[in-house]
C-alpha cells in the first residue's frame, strides 16, 4: 500500500534539495556573457568557435534545455558524437551548472543522499547517444525563452534557449 507513494515522496525530496542548490554568481559574470552575443542575437560559442568547432573539439552537439518537473527542474540534453573527445565532460568530480545570462545567477545539479548528483556520468561513453543532466530551478525563476550558458569544467556553451 505504501509503495505507491514512494515516487511522490522521491519527487518531494528532490524539489526540497533543489531549493538548496541555488548559488549566486558574481554580477560581473553576466556582463562577460553578454559580450559573447552577436548583434543578431544568435548563439555564439565562446572564443568565436562555431558549433562545428565545438563538435570537433569536444565531440558533443545538439544542446537542448527544457523545463520539467512542473518547472522546478531543467532537463539538459546533448548528443555525443565522439566518445574520446567527450570523455572529460563525464568526470564525476565536475559539477555542471547553467548561468542565467540575464542575471548571472548560477543553477546547479541537485544531489540526493541515495542517488548522488542527478546527472549521467557513465564509465563508458557511447557515440550517437543523448545524455542528460537535471538542473535545479528553485522558485521557477527560469522560464521558457531565457538564455542560458552550460558549463561543465572547461567546457562552455552559451545562449541556449530554454524550450
Describe the model:
Helix content is 22%, strand content 31%. The protein has 4 helices and 10 strands. The protein is globular, with a radius of gyration of 16 Å. Residues 15-48 have low confidence and may be disordered. With 163 residues, the protein is α+β, with helices and mostly antiparallel strands. It has one domain.
Which features characterize this protein?
163 residues; alpha+beta; 5-stranded antiparallel beta sheet; 3-stranded antiparallel beta sheet
What's the β-strand tally? 10
Apparent shape: globular
Major sheet summary line: 5 strands, antiparallel
In spatial order, strands of the major sheet run: 1-5-4-9-10
Termini Cα gap: 37 Å
Order of helices and strands: HEHHEEHEEEEEEE
Strand content: 25-35%
Number of helices: 4
Flag low-confidence runs. 15-48
Summarize the amount of helix as a percent range: 10-25%
* SSE class: alpha+beta
How confident is the prediction overall: mean pLDDT? 77
What is the alpha-carbon Rg in Å?
A: 16 Å
Number of domains: 1
Amino acid at each position: 500500500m505504501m509503495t505507491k507513494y514512494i515516487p511522490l515522496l522521491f519527487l518531494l525530496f528532490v524539489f526540497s534539495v533543489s531549493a538548496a542548490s541555488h548559488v549566486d554568481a558574481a554580477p560581473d559574470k553576466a556582463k562577460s556573457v553578454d559580450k559573447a552575443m552577436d548583434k543578431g542575437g544568435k548563439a555564439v560559442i565562446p572564443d568565436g568557435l562555431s558549433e562545428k568547432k565545438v563538435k570537433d573539439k569536444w565531440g558533443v552537439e545538439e544542446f537542448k534545455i527544457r523545463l520539467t518537473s512542473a518547472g522546478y527542474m531543467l532537463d539538459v540534453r546533448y548528443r555525443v558524437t565522439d566518445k574520446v573527445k567527450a570523455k572529460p565532460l563525464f568526470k564525476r568530480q565536475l559539477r555542471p551548472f547553467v548561468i542565467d545570462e540575464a542575471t548571472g545567477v548560477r543553477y546547479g545539479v541537485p544531489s540526493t543522499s541515495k542517488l548522488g548528483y542527478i546527472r549521467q556520468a557513465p564509465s563508458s561513453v557511447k557515440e550517437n547517444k543523448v545524455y542528460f543532466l537535471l538542473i535545479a530551478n528553485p522558485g521557477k525563476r527560469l522560464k521558457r525563452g531565457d538564455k542560458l550558458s552550460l558549463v561543465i569544467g572547461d567546457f562552455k556553451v552559451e545562449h541556449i534557449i530554454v524550450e
